[in-house]
Design goal:
206 residues, alpha+beta, Aminopeptidase, seven-stranded mixed β-sheet, 8 helices, globular
Length: 206
């Protein structure tokens, strides 16, 4: 049971670090059949074993920059980086490479390929919010929970006068971004050897 006091209904809560394992498990379940994770870890059993450890890293890094938003029900999470944080994360490349290797073992190399290709295409300027991962518990999907979290992030970006950036890994993710006035930013990021693709998306502040 979480020790975090529940916020008013409709207000996303910022979880403390004790929630990290729960959020990593939620992300792992939501992304178990995602084309990117299937490309990284083709075997379904190994994917289920390893993804929680991988997503724990992403949750912890997002926590470092106050970049974790959770729906009041706890069934949806969005990880993001505020303006300027992406550059700081880039400076942690060696640390993160080591942690990814510890979490994934033999499967760290394909993840490294994704990270490298993302870095090559990530906009350097202007400073922006980066929506890195959004997930909904499988049993609660298609209920608009992620839309609410993305709307909160967009509202924050608009208040700050900052753009927002995301990479859609599925048609559903792209549709969600398009509803929030994101537009395609250049060509898709295509993974080698017939792998899936990521679609860079950009939104100017309103």
């Amino acid at each position: 049971m979480s020790t975090i006091e529940s916020p008013p209904r409709g207000v996303p809560r910022r979880p403390a670090r004790p929630d990290t394992d729960d959020l990593a498990a939620l992300l792992a379940a939501a992304f178990h059949d995602d084309p990117l994770t299937r490309w990284i870890i083709p075997d379904g059993r190994r994917r289920a074993e390893l993804l929680p450890g991988l997503f724990r890293i992403f949750v912890e890094v997002s926590h470092d920059y106050d970049g974790v938003a959770v729906s009041p029900c706890g069934d949806a999470v969005m990880l993001f980086l505020p303006p300027g944080a992406s550059k700081q994360v880039d400076e942690r490349a060696e640390e993160l490479e080591r942690r990814f290797a510890e979490a994934l073992g033999e499967y760290a190399e394909p993840l490294g390929t994704i990270v490298r290709l993302q870095a090559e295409r990530h906009p350097a300027e202007p400073d922006h919010y980066y929506a890195s991962f959004g997930a909904v518990r499988p049993s609660r999907q298609r209920n608009g929970l992620l839309s609410v979290l993305l709307q909160e992030l967009i509202d924050r970006a608009d208040r700050d006068g900052c753009p927002a950036y995301a990479e859609a890994s599925s048609p559903g993710g792209e549709a969600l971004c398009l509803r929030q006035d994101f537009v395609r930013l250049g060509d898709d990021i295509v993974l080698p050897d017939g792998g899936p693709s990521l679609r860079p998306m950009w939104r100017d502040p309103r």
